[in-house]
Design goal:
about 200 residues, mainly alpha, Arp2/3 complex 21 kDa subunit ARPC3, two-stranded antiparallel sheet, 7 helices, about 5% strand, globular
Length: about 200
């Protein structure tokens, strides 16, 4: 769901950078030195998962794991996702430099939404509820990212409307896969290191 260079208008790209810079500045202030190793490991997992692309028509789909990033890192998900996207753009050419701000928004905002959804577990800490919330977070994060990506594509002109629809449809199976993977990872962490989910 990366948007490449040259698709969006320059003003949209600049606005994307401005909004993502504000989000990064705000969330980075909440990071302590003790959080850095955890953020680094989760960022690496996000970076690697997004590199496995499966071709689907004129587009391709891949794991995103932004819901899991939101669950594990909370507000620190925004800087984590920004770093992962920056490395993907610079090292492998996935996404773009001009659209880095927009891509951070499309991946980061759903990650934050997942973070807030997962906080419901504080009120309902039963294992079945925690697993259900993790499944929802995995699905919602992909739906949110696909909707935001489609909205940005449609802002680029009518010629991108069809591609926006394809992006939405292509990510339906990814939504289910991400939901299951997120559930499995959270289930594993509940057994071995539940404090990572606090």
């Amino acid at each position: 769901m990366h948007l490449s260079d040259g698709i969006l208008d320059g003003s949209v790209c600049l606005a994307g950078y401005a909004v993502s810079a504000i989000m990064i500045a705000y969330t980075a202030r909440k990071i302590s030195n003790e959080d850095v190793p955890k953020i680094s490991v989760v960022t690496a997992a996000f970076f690697v998962a997004s590199l496995i692309h499966v071709k689907l028509g004129p587009s391709s789909v891949h794991l995103v794991l932004n819901g899991l990033v939101g669950i594990l890192l909370g507000l620190a998900a925004i800087p984590s996702i920004f770093i992962g996207l920056l490395l993907q753009a610079v090292v492998f050419g996935h996404g773009g430099i001009t659209t880095l701000g927009v891509n951070t928004i499309t991946m980061g905002v759903p990650a934050l939404l997942s973070c807030f959804i997962f906080r419901i577990k504080k009120r309902y800490p039963q294992k079945s509820m925690v697993l259900f919330l993790s499944f929802i977070c995995g699905a919602v994060s992909i739906v949110g990212a696909a909707l935001l990506t489609a909205a940005f594509l449609m802002s680029a002109g009518k010629e991108f409307f069809t591609i926006a629809k394809i992006v939405l449809l292509a990510n339906i199976p990814i939504m289910l896969i991400e939901a299951i993977i997120t559930l499995l990872v959270v289930s594993f962490l509940l057994k071995v290191k539940p404090q990572l989910l606090d």
